[in-house]
Amino acid sequence: MRYLLQRILFYVFTAWAAITINFFIPRMIPGDPVKSLLARFQGQMSTDAIDSLYVLFGLDKDASIWSQYLDYWKQLFHGDLGLSFTAFPASVSQVISDALPWTVALVGITTIISFLLGTGLGVLAGWRRGSWIDGLLPTTTFLSSVPYFWLGLLAIYLLAGPDSFFPSSGGYEPGLVPAWDQYFIPSAIQHSLLPALTILISSVSGWILSMRNMMVTVAAEDYITVAHAKGLSERRVALGYAARNALLPNVSGFALSLGFIVGGTLLVEIVFSYPGLGFLLFRAVGAKDYPLMQGIFLVITISVLVANLIADIAYLMLDPRTRKEG
Question: Transmembrane residues, as ranges (predicted)?
Answer without folding.
Answer: 9-29, 99-124, 136-160, 188-209, 254-275, 295-318
